[in-house]
Amino acid sequence: QVRLVESGGGSVHAGGSLILSCTPFGRTFGSEAMGWFRQAPWKGREFVAGVSWSGGTTVYADSVKGRFTISRNTTKTTIYLGMNSLKPEDTAVYYCNAGGHLAGGTYHSYDYWGQGTQVTVSS
């Protein structure tokens, strides 16, 4: 059974930083893209960042460019989301996605999702 294990969420003040991680179990996604989405209360799930299978190409939502960094470890077993200069509007549940692909500068998701990890940013 495929599981995406997420960690790193928490509560910080505005301007603070967090690092999220996501590790798949049950199968590997070494030849597929992975990414991060988020969902705030009473809002739909929105794209945050994606990384290619090799880790060499990344895509970001405009709202997080320059503040967030997505990366992949060299063995392609884990992805990370570094979050700097956090704002209250970044408060959301962050979900890892696996099995996607990058094409034309756009991340296309696949239906493997983590359980979500809560990020709360206070004023």
Question: What do you see in this structure?
Answer:
β5 and β6 form a beta hairpin. The strands form 2 sheets. Strands 2, 4, 5, 6, 9, 10, 11 and 12 form an 8-stranded mixed sheet that branches. The protein has a 4-stranded antiparallel sheet with strand order 1-3-8-7, with no helix packed on it. The model has no long low-confidence stretch (mean pLDDT 94). Helices cover 0% and strands 54% of the residues. It is globular and about 40 Å long. The protein starts with a strand and ends with a strand. The chain has strands at 3-7, 10-13, 18-25, 33-39, 46-51, 58-60, 68-72, 79-83, 92-103, 106-108, 112-113, 117-122. It is mostly beta strands and 123 residues long.
What is the secondary structure topology, with strand pairs?
Elements: E1 3-7, E2 10-13, E3 18-25, E4 33-39, E5 46-51, E6 58-60, E7 68-72, E8 79-83, E9 92-103, E10 106-108, E11 112-113, E12 117-122
Parallel strand pairs: 2-12
Antiparallel strand pairs: 1-3, 3-8, 4-5, 4-9, 5-6, 7-8, 9-10, 9-11, 9-12
Write the H/E string, N to C: EEEEEEEEEEEE
Rg measurement, Å? 13 Å
Count of DSSP-assigned helices: 0
Euclidean distance between termini CA atoms: 40 Å
Q: Any idea what the shape is?
A: globular
Would you count the extended β strands for me? 12
